[in-house]
Write a structure and sequence with these properties.
six-stranded antiparallel beta barrel; 24% strand; homodimer; alpha/beta; 17 strands
């Protein structure tokens, strides 16, 4: 039996019990609201993880790259939304997937993109479904729900040979909302803005069957999803220290971590050195702007038990530095050369992206090092 | 003919002319000093890039992972230093490579590691060569050159069946030395400290044939390499904005970039949105602590000409935000949907790590989009 003591470090670990708990939590919320989930697979990029969400077989997914769309299509998924504004030169790959029977929809927020999608649809004799991106919080792209361009873009699609499928927004700023009340407000606003856009399209005689919202914080905070037809979320499957920092989960909910091994000590500096640097954790320092800066991550033992106030404070490419949090009275644990620990990440999407596979454990307490049940591949690239 | 206008974005580009210029520059310096280069391949992880340095065939290389060692061994390299403190459980892989005829040396800075290496050497009947890591600037691991442990570790190796090959240091803090004078001092100190450690070993009757120094800033600043037997450097092949920020190179020397495509505009915010986020550039923000914060990177056209004061100010997973640097009077360039630009990275090692391959251009001025001459794979993982 292989355990977390066996593979050469660093490597990524996935705690199946915690993951399933996270999945069940959001499922219960959305089932109660009567709104289906369109899982965002950019976090895990794993068919095995998606199967833990869509237990009855392939269901709706959101992707961040066409490589993900192709990988999930190969895995039997046929209802896919590519939720990054479409680059017109990528339309041939979109059409190739649609010819394979995948109902692949694209996203856009400009007349130029709408014209390109309409033109490609007409040329291929295939009405590419498109959602119009609406901005609800100034986070990234999208148009305002009251912008005149909304109807122009809608007509370019609808009249030009594409399929106007609806509207989408994403409360990206909710990652900085650190109270239940501000998260609830962000969720309400995310819902209100996109529903308003859908209503404007319908009032103009245009179709808007899909009204899509989503971000992990708002998915867990929404009190009112009236008029919303789907919720997108992906990070919640693993959660991370950024989500714990704003209270969407607790540190004990984190399902992803990285196993590293102690390779040295600097007693003069209070450092423990490991063989896991930023190549293993990513350079993401999302908690740097939160109330508690967790460095490059919180340190646990192989069973996932947190060492009080021990954090990964520094990272070179293949070296990590562990130290007691400044101001703490804790002392460094005794971790000789060869000891293994786990690092809980700031940002699960970024840390997972540094790895090719997940070593899956069941996460239940065991006297010895946790057994590795399976190794699940993930699919990076574009 | 394929050009930078053809592959789906984002993708990594390598400018061969700039790379060769960087390679020639350090070669000329080290040839004049009469000290050989041990190329660090952790930046490029590419046999093709290494071949541009070692033009006469495989030469000495430094690796940061055993996966790199195995990849370079497969490529015919037989003189390899694994320059991350050895985790004893990795010694079987070290011995496997040595059985294949690779002169693979390891690094360590503790009695526990020395005992493990000696024990593995004795058990295998193969004296594993080991360098002792010396600290010259408190950057990471290593012992002080006057530490009593130096001789203890040396004896454990030498008397225990391993091969005490010498000493090594790395002026990691020189990445923050932002004048020629402080870089020269860092180089002198890096040399003095490791030579002192070698002398102590020899005075105690122990061997120290190898005296290894190296960091990209000090390799370009060293005035005195007396007693040094090799210089390690890797980043210099590509260079990056961090190196330009401390004056080791100029922005015009950067050989690595990422091609991205414009997918949207937020005129209300002064943003251009692209399809290249942190997945394409990494989360590295190395210039954030420098005199000029370059965000996630400097923006150029497809020919590598910098857009004045246009930087990548924000990054989501697959979205980049371009904006004019705060305080500048420049205006946003006219870059419609579908326009392609290149992003020059903060940290070449981190950005390259996000990609599987390099699209190679010759870098000389052309009227049309630069032609892609070759696609060179890189080897990530552990």
């Amino acid at each position: 039996m292989t355990t977390l003591d066996d593979p050469d470090t660093p490597f990524a670990v996935l705690d199946r019990t915690r993951m399933d708990r996270n999945i069940d939590r959001l499922r219960a919320r959305l089932d109660a609201a009567g709104v289906p989930l369109r899982l965002h697979v950019k976090t895990s990029k794993s068919l095995d993880v998606a199967a833990a969400v869509h237990r009855a077989g392939p269901g709706p997914v959101t992707v961040s790259t066409l490589a993900e769309a192709e990988y999930f299509a190969d895995g039997g998924y046929t209802d896919i939304l590519y939720a990054v504004g479409i680059e017109p030169r990528k339309l041939p790959r979109v059409l190739d997937l649609r010819r394979r029977g995948v109902d692949l929809a694209v996203l856009l927020d400009s007349a130029a993109q709408a014209e390109a999608v309409a033109k490609a649809s007409a040329a291929a004799g295939d009405a590419i479904p498109a959602l119009i991106e609406i901005d609800c919080d100034g986070h990234r792209g999208g148009i305002q729900p009251d912008d005149a361009a909304l109807l122009d873009i809608g007509r370019l699609l609808h009249d030009g040979g594409a399929e106007l499928r609806g509207v989408l927004d994403h409360a990206g700023e909710s990652y900085y909302a650190d109270t239940p009340e501000t998260q609830r407000k962000a969720a309400q606003h995310e819902r209100d803005v996109v529903v308003r856009a859908a209503e404007r399209l319908r009032q103009a005689g245009l179709p808007a069957p899909v009204v899509s919202v989503g971000a992990t914080p708002t998915a867990h905070a929404a009190a009112d999803l009236t008029g919303v037809t789907e919720v997108r979320a992906g990070n919640y499957v693993f959660f991370d220290l950024v989500m714990a920092g704003i209270g969407v989960c607790t540190v004990d909910d984190l399902a992803l971590s990285v196993v590293v091994t102690v390779i040295g000590h600097r007693t003069d500096k209070g450092w423990i050195l490991t063989d896991g640097g930023w190549m293993a954790t990513s350079r993401d320092r999302g908690t740097a702007v939160q109330k508690i800066d967790q460095g490059y991550g919180v340190v646990t033992d192989l069973h996932g038990r947190v060492y009080a106030d021990l954090v990964m404070t520094g990272a070179s490419q293949e070296h990590g530095t562990l130290a007691i949090r400044p101001g703490s009275r804790q002392v460094l644990p005794d971790l000789p050369i060869g000891s293994r620990v786990r690092i809980l990440p700031n940002h699960a999407c970024a840390t997972a992206a540094q790895h090719r596979e997940y070593h899956v454990i069941d996460g239940k307490p065991t006297p010895d090092a946790p057994a590795i049940e399976a190794v699940w591949p993930r699919h990076n690239g574009w």
